[in-house]
């Protein structure tokens, strides 16, 4: 398990790494992208997703040589089992790849460190707005060098909420009823960007079915601000599998759990 001195060093190096990857992403996205589909026509991967993950992985191997590193595009299947011991870095090299391809905007780069299963460091880079949201568990949450304030704990009917479009159409956890009871509904298409809106208090909550790399970083930052990160029906998140995640203020969670339980 890493000590504070080591974590401080990781934090400094990883922030530099994320600015580097962000700059490279902006340069590369102006050249033609190589786009492939994965499981379905809206599940895309580009050359930039792959290049970002490769660069992050190789730099992390220098920064924390004994850690395991998992990433969405290359290393997940080979590296994650049910064993959470030691340091695990979790990479989402572009979050919101569909936005990246269609809009060249509204996407993020995300990275997290879990130590013995404990969410410890989290980073969400809002590339086009050039802001890095980050937290070290127990040491506050920041945007760049500025400390983030805890969001106001408002109820669902006073809050805007974001729900993934497919989830809303399927209505598995009565998401349509949740949307009706909120002050308004928003959809941005990147878990990282949606979580940033919750961190800033612009949304009262966000829910989507998410894979480990979609929520790993946001969880560290959100929990550091006193926000709740659980499943939409009030269960703990399993770090290693897909969960229908709810990131929200305490009051929004209580209001939503009354609907889903
Ligand atoms: C996706 C985005 C999207 C969310 C999906 C994620 P990706 O990430 O965050 O907003 O609804 O569940 O998979 O694939 O673009 O990294
Ligand atoms: Ca993807
Ligand atoms: Ca993602
Ligand atoms: Ca991704």
Automatic annotation (TrEMBL):
Transmembrane segments: none
Annotated keywords: Hydrolase, Magnesium, Metal-binding
Keyword Disulfide bond set for record: no
Gene3D superfamilies the UniProt entry points to: 3.40.190.80, Fructose-1,6-Bisphosphatase, subunit A, domain 1
Record bears the keyword Methyltransferase: no
Top-level taxonomic group: Bacteria
Pfam family, one: Inositol_P
CDD domains (UniProt xref): IMPase_like
UniProt cross-references to SUPFAM superfamilies, sorted A to Z: Carbohydrate phosphatase
Protein name: Inositol monophosphatase family protein
Organism of this sequence: Limosilactobacillus fastidiosus
């Amino acid at each position: 398990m890493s000590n504070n001195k080591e974590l401080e060093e990781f934090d400094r190096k990883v922030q530099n790494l994320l600015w580097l990857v962000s700059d490279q992403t902006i340069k590369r996205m102006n050249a033609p992208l190589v786009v492939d589909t994965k499981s379905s026509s809206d599940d895309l991967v580009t050359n930039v997703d792959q290049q970002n993950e490769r660069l992050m992985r190789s730099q992390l191997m220098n920064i924390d040589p004994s850690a395991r590193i998992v990433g969405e595009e290359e290393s997940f299947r080979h590296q994650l089992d049910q064993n959470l011991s030691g340091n695990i870095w979790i990479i989402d090299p572009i979050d919101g790849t569909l936005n990246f391809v269609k809009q060249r905007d509204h996407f993020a780069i995300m990275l997290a460190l879990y130590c013995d299963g404990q969410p410890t460091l989290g980073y969400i880079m809002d590339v086009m707005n050039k802001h890095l949201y980050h937290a070290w568990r127990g040491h506050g949450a920041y945007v760049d060098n500025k400390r983030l304030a805890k969001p106001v704990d408002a109820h669902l009917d006073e809050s805007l909420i974001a729900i993934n479009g497919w989830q809303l159409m399927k209505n598995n956890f009565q998401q349509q009823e949740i949307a009706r009871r909120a002050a308004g509904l928003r959809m941005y298409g990147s878990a990282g960007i949606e979580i940033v809106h919750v961190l800033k208090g612009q949304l009262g909550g966000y829910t989507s079915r998410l894979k480990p790399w979609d929520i790993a970083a946001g969880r560290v930052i959100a929990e550091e601000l006193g926000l709740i990160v659980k499943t939409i029906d009030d269960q703990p998140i399993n770090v290693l599998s897909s969960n229908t995640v709810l990131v929200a203020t305490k009051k929004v969670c209580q209001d939503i759990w009354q609907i889903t339980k």
